[in-house]
Amino acid sequence: MVTVGLTFISALVGWSATAALTAYAQRRPSVAAIAWLVAAFGVTVGLSAAVIGVLFDFGELTFRLLHIGVSLIGPLFMAWGALEYAVRSPNARFTARLFVTALTVVPLVVLSVDRISGRFGTAFPPLGDHYDLIPRSLVNGVQGFVAILLVLAIIAVARRGSRGSGVTDLSVLGLVVLAAVLSVVVGRMGIGSLGPLLMLGAISSLWGAAALAAKPRRDLYDDDDDYYDDEYDDEDDELDDEPQEEPVRRKRRNADTYDDLYADAPAPPPSKLRGVITIYTLADGQGGGFDQVANAVVAEVAKREPDTLLFAAHTVPSAPLQRIVYAIYRDELAQEEHEQQPHVMEFTRRLSAHVVATNVIELSLSGAAANDGLAAMLMPR
């Protein structure tokens, strides 16, 4: 009865995790979130079948469902989600998607129809005890591919070092690795009454990883900084808070008038100004998500970076999947300070969910002419 209770609890937690991951995927849609949702759903279906198996002895159907979820879908989509979360290279992601498609369809068909041999009991049955050589070989290949994806994801985060949210990314990957390893161990060995307990740990680890990945990076900001307090989820709150900052920002912009420029506060020499143009190519359907993230960081730059003289984001009417962001900094130091701002690092981290390619052009301004009302026209209130 202990095994029955643990299996039932594991399945119940699995359905709860699946519901939570569905909410995360809707709140911050990304390929990684969807992959982890599929992994949780597959494992949960397998555990639900296992509840019947430990109550009335396993049969062909419950055995197949258990291992399709625990040995195939769960580990494969956990690892794919980890790679999508950690790796920014479009080529690497595209290649992984091709392999994931092939390694899902073919083994799924084989595990669903291949002959099963041996007698079943109420304990979690190891995959190798009842499947023949071909399905065992396919699952071994899939699990080897899972190990490769997880290693690549860890290497990608480790190469970025401590920049941005590296510690959080490593924590997310660590939980995903733990979930995948536990799922593979249970599928290969069964482990009797420990099987449902280990699967409870696997589904909990995956849930924790997805929750940590979806959580805004509040630890990068001061307690009085409400930049990421649901700013991406509730635009109405952002609009309600905005007028409180308007007098400060208008005062700063209006203070840099024509008279001040040539009298009390002369502009720095043009040779000191720095500019950057960044061209983003978006994934299909990610225009709205990118624009929301970009609008938020533009607002933060306006409030917190007086030495960033201009920071603007534009759509491209003739190319709906392109966005252009350009910036002008007072000097090289201002550019370095901008790149180290928490809201800029958070913006960079969130781009991976929306962007497939990025081109950066750095400029040294040699001469310019601008109307006094340029700032007001670019950022109307």
Automatic annotation (TrEMBL):
SUPFAM superfamilies, A to Z:
Dimeric alpha+beta barrel
Location of region: Disordered: 223-269
Top-level division of the source organism's lineage: Bacteria
Annotated transmembrane regions: 6-24, 31-56, 68-87, 94-113, 133-158, 170-191
Report biased composition (Acidic residues) as residue ranges: 223-245
UniProt keyword annotation of Ligase present: no
For this UniProt record, the keywords arranged alphabetically read as follows: Membrane, Transmembrane, Transmembrane helix
InterPro entries to which the protein is assigned, alphabetical: Dimeric_a/b-barrel
Protein name (Swiss-Prot/TrEMBL): Quinol monooxygenase YgiN
> What is the organism of origin for this protein?
Nocardiopsis exhalans
